[in-house]
Amino acid sequence: MSRLAVSNLSASLGGNPVLKDIAISVSPGEFVGLIGPNGAGKSTLLRACLGLIPSSGEILLGGTDLRRMAPAELALHIAYVAQDRDIAWPITVEVLVDLGRQPHRGAFARSAIADHEAVEAALQRMDIGKLRSRRATDLSGGEKARVLIARALAQQADLLLADEPVAGLDPAHQIALMQVFRDLTRQGTSVVASMHDLGLAARWCDRLVLLESGRIVADGAPAELLTADLLRRVYGIEAYVADVAGGLIVQPTRLAQTGIEQGISRDSTA
Ligand SMILES: Nc1ncnc2c1ncn2[C@@H]1O[C@H](COP(=O)(O)OP(=O)(O)OP(=O)(O)O)[C@@H](O)[C@H]1O
């Protein structure tokens, strides 16, 4: 059975249709990359899959419509990393990551050993052990991002939805995060992450789902989906695409002619 099964999903924001007849299913242990141009609807789809915005259609989590699940139950099954990395409270990194354990215990219960281990594992996975006593509000952008991802990892949900989780991370931490996601999926967790870095998406995701103007226009294995033709049509870019022994390489090189038609200015020397 799919861990997440979405069908006929449509949603409007501010009176405008933003998601149109979306169908997507995610299996246990799958790492799905959600790609598409700015404004395509990636964040909205993730938020709809959390029940955060009104939508029509079906969103099944392990066979149950998640809109009928209580928030506390939902939090045991889905973890979410939002695109917005604002941290308002000057609490320590360790305390913030520990908030990810909240669904597993009563609000005032003492941390159990399992909670402690989950927090330690999340701190190590995101390479923020040495930041544990720092105030989260004092961290750099990339450090804050890693702390918020660690909080979601500590939740140990079987489905992780992450909105542009690599944004702001340096190359080493981007690759490390992809490795963390792959390791999690190999242990049975499902991960759906929106991404703009097509090279990382190509190399690490099991499957890519491409959104354009609120519709899914392609869904498949990276090597089948990421063709130069499709990238030109959807993103208006030329890209170097090569399937080599070490894995798929996708490197955007310049704007395509269609980029101009879409209103994107182009540096003719590029
Ligand atoms: N609250 C809102 N009211 C009206 N329109 C909205 C609202 N939130 C988002 N939108 C619109 O919905 C569309 C999809 O937005 P969404 O944030 O899901 O795109 P995205 O694919 O995640 O983009 P990006 O890559 O820029 O993060 C956009 O056109 C956006 O302007």
Topology:
Layout: E1 4-13, E2 16-26, E3 31-35, H1 42-48, E4 56-61, E5 64-65, H2 71-77, E6 78-81, H3 93-98, H4 113-125, H5 141-154, E7 159-163, H6 171-186, E8 190-194, H7 198-204, E9 207-212, E10 215-220, H8 222-225, H9 228-235, E11 237-244, E12 247-255, H10 257-261
Parallel strand pairs: 3-8, 3-9, 6-7, 7-8
Antiparallel strand pairs: 1-2, 1-4, 4-5, 9-10, 11-12
Bound molecules: adenosine-5'-triphosphate.
Residues 13-14, 16, 18, 36, 38-44 line the site of adenosine-5'-triphosphate.
| Apparent shape | globular
**Helix/strand/pairing category:** alpha/beta
* End-to-end C-alpha gap: 48 Å
Low-confidence stretches: 266-270
Overall tally of domains: 2
Small molecules bound: adenosine-5'-triphosphate
What's the CATH architecture name of the largest domain?
3-Layer(aba) Sandwich
H/E series: EEEHEEHEHHHEHEHEEHHEEH
Which strand order does the major sheet show?
A: 6-7-8-3-9-10
Output the number of helix runs.
Answer: 10
> CATH homologous superfamily of the largest domain, by name?
P-loop containing nucleotide triphosphate hydrolases
Looking at CATH, which topology of the largest domain would you report? Rossmann fold
Mean pLDDT across the residues is 93
